[in-house]
Amino acid sequence: MKVKGIDFEEVLTPFDDDAGNPRFREFSPTGKVPTLVDGDTRIWESLAILEYLADLFPDKGFWPEDIATRAAARAFSSEMHAGFTALRNACPTNWRRPVGAIQVGEDVRRDV
Known about the structure:
The chain is mainly alpha-helical. It is 35% helix and 7% strand.
């Protein structure tokens, strides 16, 4: 939203541990982040937020204009978002926790 010049208030809430933060449920029905709150509307999941913003601000160019290029961009985004399950399970993202070398199985190797 910053890149697109859309005014918003960012609320950063730290994760308490790997289970998240109970406060997330105050604004997210699933207790997960990111969540976009727009008045009474609450949207969670990154791709749903992107689609909502693309509909709300069609002039901001969230997706490519060309229909085939837009379809490819959506396919790539969906794959990144929903795919790579083995990799995500073996290597979860937690920027605050130092991690050493991780032994990965063949399922993770296939993902990458």
